[in-house]
Write a structure and sequence with these properties.
The protein is an all-beta fold and 130 residues long. The protein has a single domain, classed as Rieske [2Fe-2S] iron-sulphur domain (Rieske Iron-sulfur Protein). The chain is built from no helices and 10 strands.
């Protein structure tokens, strides 16, 4: 199966340095948590798993940035990641980073480019508008 662009949400749903949009990727029988954020005007998406220990990053639903809005932070151990690359900036994640997902933004929509299907469940925020 080749990667396909799937609509995640409207461009206006993700503000710069604001809350991220949570979603999941269907990988076989598993549902893998992921998220998208906007940083310096660009959309970035990652699997929602700390590189140190595979726990979700957000301390509250969709809150991925630290209080200074400079880094993405793991609520469990305090690891910090650069929002534009997912690379580890500080903490137990040293030498490892977040797993990035391909994104594109076109015609007011944010899309994830993946072989795996995007879906929304009780742990995700919203369903995309068509």
């Amino acid at each position: 199966m080749s990667p396909a662009a799937q609509i995640l949400c409207d461009s206006s749903d993700i503000e710069d340095l604001g809350k991220g949009v949570r979603f999941s990727l269907k990988q076989g029988d598993r549902s893998v948590p992921a998220f998208a954020i906007r940083y310096q005007g660009k959309i970035h998406a990652y699997l929602n798993q700390c590189a140190h220990l595979a726990v979700e990053l957000d301390w509250q639903h969709g809150d991925f940035f630290d209080s200074d809005k400079k880094y993405l932070v793991c609520a469990t151990h305090g690891a910090l990641y650069y929002p534009d690359s997912g690379a580890c900036a500080y903490g137990r994640c040293a030498g490892r980073g977040l797993i990035a997902l391909d994104t594109t933004e076109k015609d007011g929509k944010i899309m994830i480019i993946s072989e795996n299907t995007i879906h929304f469940d009780q742990n995700t925020q919203k369903k995309p508008t068509p």
